[in-house]
Design a protein that fits this description.
about 270 residues; mainly alpha; MetI-like fold; 2 domains; 11 helices
Length: about 270
Amino acid sequence: MKPKKRVFGTIGMVFLMIFLYAPIIYPIIFSFNSGSTLTKFKGFSTQWYTKMFQDRSMMSAILYTIIIAVIATAVSVIVGTVTAIGLSKSSKILRSVVTQVNELPMMNPDIVTAIGLLMFFSALKVDKGFLTLLLAHIMFCIPYVILSITPRLRSLDPNLADAAMDLGATPIQALVKVVVPQLLPGIISGALIAFTMSFDDFVISYFSTGNGVNNISIVVYAMRKRVNPSIYALAALVTVIIATGLVLYNLISWIVARRRAREEAARAAEM
């Protein structure tokens, strides 16, 4: 029975991997298709990459997407980190209320948030464009950063900052040099989630932007009736960039962990 279970388990795992990764591999393969068909591979060519870089609307969308994602991530990390640290020093009632309010944007459907932002900007008579799109992304990224940092903050010694100040550090130095380094894993995970959410968002972006300012998801949606094979080149490029970033992040984390292990071993040997 055990060999049969292993066979069925292996087959199930293979089908699961195909189901998960086939939609990712398929666009990469057909981004090098010499033909315009999306179902038959006619030959190897890089023409769709050339057309993608020559398409001004697509390149503009890529630029806006990256700029907005980077700025939204940076702002949300700063605001989220300061907020999480401030909440840890607040009363239980205030912390509970703010935590519940912080979870609302994540639990609320995107379409409801998008319509609310549309009505809010319309009530203020603000012309929708880059600024409104950026503010919308910052708004829904901050809760994810706070949620990522809070568990890490709870595991820290609450007297850590006080001990640093007793040794002569100023409150800013205690925050930057003592507390923040301890929160770094939570900050990095929050930044990655915020960047991914901003980069991938469509519904809120669609209702928060104006003419001439589009991100990648809006451009792809505009091509829904007539798919341009250049989209495959764009999908392949984004996949490669994300995969490279993940590999580099894991490699750097591994190198840092090994270096710390060696330093601890050296200290233990000296003692």
